[in-house]
Specification:
alpha/beta, nine-stranded mixed sheet, 14 helices, 32% helix, 12% strand
């Protein structure tokens, strides 16, 4: 059977900061620097945005789902409008986080309207939001994480959606029609889903990590010192310490839990002294690492960075089979300052098409939450090797998995003090 996938660029030229680099830079912000949260808190306070009795912005959580209001001065577009003509649809995204082929398909589909699509990238989320707010460049679509949505809505930076243009939402997992961070999907549609687990090479790690009573323990195993890495994202790495200890509140403000994290990170430094990085997707297949904490999308990408002659069979990935690990998703939103809201809606519809989403997955390695894309399909069609089947994200994981949420300012500072101390000694 002919391979249905588009040709995969094995060594892409990176034109700007990737999603991984963005998360790394966010982790390195100094505690005294103005953060995205502080910037948008100021915006929302001055705009009279919804807040808690203490004056801080209301934040969504799985235990506190939120339906965001729609203001009269930021209403959805009307039904049945024609696409804007001779328009440039501007996407604002991480570098290398959307396939050029799916963009070309959209341009071809609306060629009679003279549509051109451009992609701009940003150095960090603070820069991204600042540029969006100034309106100097009228970006149409932005690709945020869910922990930004509360402030983006409250600051009036994103446009509520007219669902009549986005019928392909029916292709997606049911939960994304009513997600806790945006009940009734008034402002967002999902872009990708991923898990955080452990990747390893069987020719460098003798243990079957997936068979260990507590697979997280392997990252603390001194015999793999010098061949271990953890993700250079404070919340992701520190959250793993809690999971290893049987704790499931990954956003805790408990002093005892924070002390436990500090203890776990100190032990980690003393035993394996892991590399703290975001380059697992090249370092693991390249042989510089034997094992590492890893995002599912990165281990899928790792197969394309194996040295010539090295079989993909050397790679493995573990994530709890019951789904009780770290799960996350990224989003697409229509910006209120964009000049092409109809085309923006149609682009979201395009990206939620199953064939388009599958093609995009073949490029970025991060899975779309399409109902028809299960493990059997993705393995049979060659998108995911059989030995990496654990990297396929399942819908039920999002019912039981654990989320990394935005923290209060004080709690965020407490977590960062521990992280910066770990980084200084790593």
């Amino acid at each position: 059977m002919p391979d249905p996938r588009p040709p995969r660029p094995l060594r892409r030229t990176r034109s700007g900061p990737t999603r991984r680099q963005m998360l790394q830079r966010a982790a390195l912000l100094s505690l005294g620097a103005p953060t995205l949260g502080a910037f948008l808190d100021a915006c929302t306070r001055s705009s009279g945005a919804p807040s808690t009795p203490s004056g801080s912005l209301t934040l969504a959580a799985p235990t506190h789902p939120v339906t965001w209001p729609i203001s009269k001065d930021n209403a959805p577009i009307g039904n049945g409008l024609s696409p804007e003509r001779n328009a440039t649809l501007r996407l604002y995204n991480y570098a290398d986080y959307i396939g050029p082929g799916v963009i070309k398909q959209f341009e071809k589909k609306y060629a009679s309207y003279g549509v051109n699509v451009t992609v701009s990238t940003f150095n960090d989320t603070d820069e991204a939001i600042t540029k969006i707010r100034t309106g100097d460049v009228p970006y149409d679509i932005y690709f945020p994480s869910y922990d930004q949505i509360s402030r983006l809505v409250a600051a009036g930076l994103i446009r509520p959606l007219n669902h009549s243009y986005i019928t392909n939402i029916d292709n997606l997992w049911a939960a994304f029609k009513d997600p806790w961070y945006d009940q009734q999907w008034r402002y967002t549609v999902p872009y990708s889903v991923y898990t955080t687990g452990i990747g390893w090479r069987v020719d460098k790690v003798s243990t079957d990590i997936s068979a260990l009573p507590n697979p997280y323990d392997t990252l603390w195993d001194a015999k793999y010192r010098g061949h271990t890495a953890v993700i250079d994202d404070w919340h992701t790495c520190m959250g793993m310490c809690l999971l290893r200890a049987g704790k499931t509140d990954l956003n805790t403000d408990s002093p005892a839990d924070l002390a436990l994290i500090h203890q776990q990170l100190t032990e980690l430094s003393n035993t394996t002294k892991p590399k703290v990085t975001i380059s697992m997707y090249t370092d693991l297949p390249g042989g510089q690492l034997g094992q590492c904490q890893m995002w599912s999308g990165d281990v899928v990408n790792a197969q394309y960075y194996l040295p010539k002659g090295t079989s993909v069979d050397v790679l493995r990935y573990w994530f709890p089979s019951d789904g009780k690990g770290m799960v996350d998703n990224d989003l697409m939103v229509v910006l209120s300052g964009g000049q092409n809201p109809v085309l923006a809606h149609l682009f979201l519809q395009h990206m939620l098409d199953t064939k388009v989403a599958l093609q995009n997955f073949g490029y970025i390695g991060y899975q779309p939450p399409q109902r028809s894309l299960d493990t059997k399909t993705l393995v049979q069609q060659g998108y995911v090797p059989k030995n990496l089947a654990a990297a396929v994200v399942h819908e039920e994981y999002f019912n039981v998995g654990y989320r990394l949420l935005e923290l209060t300012v004080d709690n965020d500072a407490a977590w960062h003090r521990i992280w910066l101390s770990f980084k200084a000694g790593s």
